[in-house]
Amino acid sequence: MTLPKILVIDDEPSISKLLKHSLTSNGFEVFEAATGNEGIQRMIEKRPDLIILDFGLPDLTGLEVLHKIREWSKTPVIFLTVRDSDEDKVAALDGGADDYLTKPFSVPELLARIRVGLRHSQLSEDLPLFTAGPLEIDRSGHLVRINGREVKLTSTEYLLLAVLAKHAGKVVPHRTILNDVWGPNSVEHNHYLRVYFGQIRKKFDAALEGSSELITTESGVGYRLKTNLSD
Amino acid sequence: MSPSGRRTPDELLEALNRTSASERRGKLRIFLGMCPGVGKTYAMLEAARQQLVRGVKVVAGVVETHGRKETEALLEGLNNIPKKETRYKDTPLYEMDLDRILREKPDLVLVDELAHTNVPESRHAKRYQDVQELLSAGIDVYTTVNIQHIESRNDQVAQITGVLVRETVPDSIIDNADQIEVVDLSPDELLQRLKEGKVYLGDRAARAMEGFFKEEHLLALRELALRFVAEKVDLDLHAHMTIKGIEGPWNTTERLLVAVSHSPYSARLIRTTRRMAHSLEAPWIALYVNTGQSLSKEDEETLQKNITLARELAAEVITIADNDIAGAIRKVSYDRNVTQIIMGRPDRRFFRDLFGQGSLLDKLVRDTSKVDVHVIRAERKPRYHGFALKWPELKSGFIPYYNTAWFMVAVSFLCRGLLEVTGYRALGSVFLLAILAVATLSTAGPTLFAAIFSAVVWNFFFIPPVWTFTIAAPEDFMMVASFFVAALAGGLLTSRIRRQELVLEIRESETRLLYELVKNLTRARDDEEAATILSNKIQRQFKAGAVVLLADKERKLRASKSSGRQLSENEFAVAQWAFENGKAAGWSTQTLSASPCLSLPMKGETGVVGVVVFFPQPSQKALGVETENFLETIIAQTAIVLERLEFREAAEATKLYKESEKIHQILLNSVSHELRTPITALIGSASALSDERTVNDPVARKALTQEVVGAARRLDRVVENLLDVSRLEKGTLQLKKEWFELGELFDILHSELRDDLRGRIIRLKGETSVLVEGDFQLLDQALTQLILNAVKYGKSDGQIEIACEVHEGSYVRIKVRDEGPGIPKGLEDQLFEKFFRAPGTPAGGVGLGLSIVKNIIELHGGNVTARNRHDVSGAEFEIELPYKSAPPALREALK
To answer: Angle B80-B82-B85 (CA atoms, 0-180°, nearest 5)?
Structure first.
């Protein structure tokens, strides 16, 4: 069985090294590139299954590389970025990236995202039943269960959860959420998202009788439903 | 200079300026001759050749060889710049090509005949101005000039030889020359050369020059030339001694003053004063007293010429408005510590000397006892006017007389009507009233006319015997006579009052304008505003256009944004020249006079800061003295204000820079400490892990690895903190506002701070379900800081409490309480200052935490306060945020 191939495009040798070592010891085959152009070449040569792209490259901007990749490939891309660059993150996600990691990151986090990225979109949409840890979503009946117990969600809350479930494990940008739930012209709800998800979280916590930590807030970018492959 | 005789700082500076200015400027070397033919050009060429041998780049700008072969031979090898041809009324004229020389940038240029007048259409009217421009550009100049051309000696030469030379060079040029040498020839030798035909005189000058070349003349001229140079040497010595700080026989508590008027005689007085001042090495003042008298055009021009002359001869020109000339002189003398007044012999007038206060001289001598008064010998004998009276100005133009005539005719008819009622005697009062009316409304001339007219009419038509000029009754005669005297007196007095009024008006308006201008200027916040104020003032005052050009940091001129008018390329070029050379140019000056506009450089203390381009009315030919003065004053004022604004900007920038330097220093110090601690832990733990035994021990391995991660996270937090500070400081931070439940914030805090809390419990009280709008991350940060502080400074086993209070419609309060020593008294406010650490606090920490909290909360429109608790010992930090009720859409969706 061939190991999944990951291409790391990063100009920082220390980060490259770290990634190579930790990914290799976790069962991946790793290729490296230090510049955007090199990365694109390597991608053509090696046809990786996933690309980790650092945004601070010397020759091209992360977005430029992303666009080039996306010109003829659907390979999942996870990009590395710094804190407080929310606009960049949103732009990248809009530009075709699948997920991101903020530096400094921990390797377990990275691995979780990689696994999510590699999962060939098992069209979570098609399956009538969606599971992620204690969470169960019954799409046909619009029912949500935690550990078997039904949780009563408002229709808005259900829709919100459904969007996250559609992209389970990946970060869903605000815009996508708003588009799917309210339609393209509903900007104001952007400011209320945290409250809505807060309500959902409270209900999950009550059902679990503890802290659920199923839904993470990616501040300034979007929300993410954690799947049980993460820690 | 101070009474002790030592140099004042100003003088030292001036001397230094003279020396240092000459380093940047080109050096001027003058070859002075007593008359034409002594061999100046030859000497100049010889000196130039010496320089050429040394490798200096020499060009001949203009050298008049007059066909002499020996002179021409010397020109060989020197780059002779061909003359520039200009056309004037279809005639080709040739003049030195100034621009070409400037372009070629030689080290040295030869310019013959310094006093030469340039052809019209040249940039400058006179060649010496060309030389000045060359010197400003850093090019050395050798030039020749005769003693008769030197301004201050011009009249003496005329006296000696009987020939008046009109082309003159101002003394200031000669004074600032670096080297001056006399090309000397004994009169015998010169006459010999003349006989041999070796002296070029110029065709038309030949006969006139015959007067020049008499032996006694030549002797006198020679002496004049040698004396002149000796004086200059003396002056240089003085300057040299000043710099070296050598004490010398300074002479100088002297100051001279000469009154300038429109009399042509004034010029002579001015030159004499200059000579005296020069030999005394004293400063001198040329004073013009504006008595309100209106002057004819020629007089105005003569006055202007005299003032310009005084200025060129380096006098301090003062203009003052006053009716009383003697009084004005007295005032200025007193104010400026004048020690000697120079004046000419006055004419004698009988009545004035007997009954009046006497001539100007008498008045001065009487009133100013501390001042010497020098009376300069006259060119002609003083006129004795005998019984003649000084007529007041009678020239008022035709119209007032015309109107007065008609008025008086009307009055006469009125009298005819009144004759039956009042009798002929009373008519005198009617006429008198009429005359007084004229006096109030008009000047002396028409009043006098009215008086005469009335007398005649009254006599002829009304006083018996009527229709004759005889007066029968003696009392009638006395009546008419006294009437006439009264009328005259009335008229004369009125004209005097009118003049005084005028003078006062002038003074008042000047002062007022200046006051307004200065008031407005001091309120100007930037240079654009100042420029606008100035141009508006000029436009309003002179009803002429004005554009102000300001110099930017690269010393380039640009129009101020407010100027309405765009300058054409030519106009801009004139302004550029004025700016670079620091001199007025354009209309009514000697440089580029064909231009329709006048460019005046704005000179401040440090140099030229801009140019004012003045567009006179098309009918104007020249600026009057008053106008010139006024323009000069307001431009100088504005220049100073502009400089001040510049200085202020620079000072502020420096202040900011210093402050940021200080902050940098503090930051560096505390940051390096803050960073060092976790780094130590990192290196320590990581290096320990590289040890064989340790890495194989699972317990040690786990502990150390955790330590590494923990230290690294702390490091991360310090870095983030610093970045936050800079972002908050810059003020560019924008809140990412969203609505959330307070409870959620606390939940997140709880999980984030699990490690830092080390098992400590936080008690949550109050209504945590309230909805709040704000930047989640920033508020997270603020509360994190407060909680961490509570952990750090509170008792290690004490309880930490967070309480929420909601007052609907007004506020939301979050209080973080700890148990511990609390806050030192009086420091509750200071705690929030940047870099503040309460004395006695454990080391570690940059001191920025609370200031960040304050910034964040204030950005949200709230405030944060610290105090000690009442119930137990401990601190309480209270965040108050303005209450906002949740928007309906949100409340809808929550249902």
So the answer is: 165
- B167-211: per-residue pLDDT in tens? 889 888 888 888 888 888 888 888 888 777 766 655 545 555 566
Chain A CB within 8 Å of residue B776 CB: yes
Residue B736 to residue A193, Cβ atoms within 8 A: no
A24: in domain: yes
Instruction: Please state, in angstroms and rounded to a whole number, the distance separating the CA atoms of residues B241 and B248.
Output: 7
pLDDT at B188: 85
A138 touches chain B (CB under 8 A): no
Averaged pLDDT of chain A? 85
* Residue A213 belongs to a domain: yes
pLDDT of res. B392: 47
Half-sphere exposure of B32 (CA within 13 A, CB side): 28
B890: which chain A residues are within 8 Å (Cβ-Cβ)?
A: 192, 195
ipTM value for the complex: 0.83
- CATH number of the domain that A178 lies in? 1.10.10.10
pLDDT bucket at B2, cuts 50 / 70 / 90: very low
Task: Check if A201 contacts B (Cβ < 8 Å).
Answer: yes
Q: Has residue A230 been placed in a domain?
A: no
Cβ neighbours of residue B409 closer than 8 Å, sequence gap 6 or more: none
Helix (H, G, I), strand (E, B) or coil at B289: strand
Residue A230 pLDDT > 70: no
Residue A76, burial from CB neighbour count under 10 angstroms (0-12, 13-18, 19+): buried
CATH number, domain at A80?
3.40.50.2300
Neighbours of A79 (CB within 10 A): 24
Mean pLDDT (chain B, rounded): 80
pLDDT in tens, B289-326: 887 666 777 788 888 888 888 887 878 888 888 878 88
Q: Are residues A93 and A53 in the same domain?
A: yes
CA distance A196 to B741: 10
Element housing B836 (H / E): none
Q: Which domain holds residue A33?
A: 5-122
From A92, A122, A152, give the residue that closes a domain: A122
| A140 and A212 assigned to the same domain | yes
B741: nearest CA in chain A? A195
* A16 and A95 in a common domain: yes
The number of beta carbons lying within 10 Å of the beta carbon of residue B541 is 16
Q: Which residue, of A122, A153, A179, is where some domain finishes?
A: A122
User: The tokens 């780049």 sit on which residue?
Assistant: B57
Does A47 lie in the same domain as A146? no
A133 and A90 within one domain: no
Sort out which chain A residues have CB atoms less than 8 A from B895's CB and list them: 154
Task: Identify residue A123 by its one-letter amino acid code.
Answer: L
**A51 has pLDDT over 90:** yes
pTM: 0.47
Question: Please, what is the Cα angle at B478 between B473 and B482, to 5 degrees?
Answer: 150
Do residues A80 and A59 share a domain? yes
Stretch A1-10: mean pLDDT:
88
For B342-397, what is each residue's pLDDT tens digit?
887 766 555 555 555 556 777 777 766 678 888 887 655 545 544 444 444 445 56
Q: Are residues A152 and A60 in the same domain?
A: no
**Chain A hits for B741, Cβ within 8 Å:** 195, 198
Q: Would you say residue B796 has pLDDT above 70?
A: yes
Q: Residue by residue, what is the 3-state secondary structure of B475-538?
A: HHHHHHHHHHHHHHHHHHHHHHHHHHHHHHHHHHHHHHHHHHHHHHHHCCCCHHHHHHHHHHHH
Q: Find the mean pLDDT for residues B462-478.
A: 79
Window from B55-64, B89-98, B394-403, B496-505 with minimum mean pLDDT: B394-403
Closest by CA to B134, choosing from B20, B27, B17, B45, is B27
* DSSP single-letter state for residue B338: -
Could you tell me if residue A38 is inside a domain?
yes
